[in-house]
Amino acid sequence: MEGLEKGLEELRQTFGSGKTRDVAWRKSQLRGLLRLLNEEEEDIFRVLHEDLGKHRVEAYRDEVGVLKKSVNFALENLDGWMATKKVKLPWLVWPSKGEVVAEPLGLVLVFSSWNFPIGLTLECLIGAISAGNVVVLKPSEQSPASSLFLANCIPMYIDSKAVKIYEGGSSVAEKLLEYKWDKIFFTGSARVGRIVMTAAAKHLTPVTLELGGKCPGIVDSRLSLHDKKVTAQRIVAGKWGACCGQACIGIDYLLVEEKYASEMVDLLIRMIKKFFAKNHLSRIVNKQQYHRLSDLFNDPSVAASIFHGGSRNIKDLVIEPTIMLNPPLDAEIMTEEIFGPLLPIITLNKIEDSIEFLRSRPKPLAIYAFTNDEKFQRRIVAETSSGSITFNDAVVQTSSTDIGAAK
Predict the structure, then answer these.
(1) Among positive and negative, which fits the CA dihedral 300, 304, 306, 312?
(2) Residue 267 class from Cβ within 10 Å (0-12 exposed, 13-18 middle, 19+ buried)?
(3) Which member of 210, 215, 243, 257 is catalytic?
């Protein structure tokens, strides 16, 4: 990679100069990011549509708007984050005083993903800059328009001696991992996450992994008719409304009682037609992902389980919202993260059986349980393990609660 050594050396010199420790510098960089989001908003909408077919409303809701909120939150709280914290010490060391001083780590590497290529890239950058670090960004090559936009625009708004962008595929990522970093952020698959962790272990570099999983939705048939309709709306929005199902915290499959399955499917189909009649869905990111999803249909027993949808258009990289009823549990669609617009529904004798079903499978990033039964809610919290549990909604996460899959 031409210029990599020189670029990393410049970053180290910038960090060594101490300029990134200054609160005024950090705030100036955050304000630069805010200007980028405001002044380049139309271009952001353009590249997100080019890469993923995202409607501008979806692009603002899931990426631009979230980023603006994050920058403003950082600006409002930065002084407090940087402040020295006094701590109590045991009497054994009296009359000593104790303080905790926050300090930057140094050189940070960010591998971002293709499904939210602007949002997840800049979200990590906001945190790294707020903490006073210098940063290398490696955008995903699977969202090329967004990657090029970041490479061209970030140097216009951010100190180019403190933040650098390197575009490219796996060879670029492999080259970057040869170097020593003080912190690595990675968003992507568990397979690549293992590669990143292995490389980081050579230097004992701390790593934050944002991986995926199969997030289940549990639907209690004891809900009122009104609540069942609201549940269907929220499932449809949570499954297909965010990047056409290409979201790690999206609903992967549903668990429902067998006696309720037909009613649930009918409600879902009605809501799909209501929400997406004008086809405002994002598209599949590229042919590689399109073929991966299409391969899930190739198993005859899986194809036989399709209850609604299933049509595909490779030219436009579009797969219709598809509902499957009881595909085989050992089929790939039920053992691997779907990451697309396919929704299997698995039926159970009683909804309480969902707890044992989840306990028998890998721990998910999130569980979405639609039930008003407080006893059942308490059992789900006590007897399952996941990164988060949300009751009566989907995809909703908050910055005030930790997000991360239990292992």
Answers:
(1) positive
(2) buried
(3) 210
Tokens matching residue 54: 């995202």
Which stretches in the chain have pLDDT values below 70?
1-2, 278-279, 399-407
pLDDT digits (tens, 9 = 90+) for 213-247: 899 999 999 999 999 999 999 999 999 999 999 99
Q: How far apart are CA 403 and CA 161, in angstroms?
A: 32
Active site annotation includes 210 = yes
* 153 catalytic per annotation: no
DSSP state of 95: T
277 vs 347: CA distance, rounded Å: 28
Block residue for tokens 């209690």: 220
Q: What share of the chain is helix, strand, coil (3-state, %, to 5)?
A: 45, 15, 40
CA-based angle 303:309:310, to the nearest 5?
45
CA 33 centroid distance within chain: 20
Q: Where on the phi/psi map is residue 310: left (φ > 0), alpha (ψ -120 to 50), or beta?
A: left
Task: Given the residues 40, 58, 248, 257, select the one marked as catalytic.
Answer: 248
Beta bridge partners of 217: 254, 368
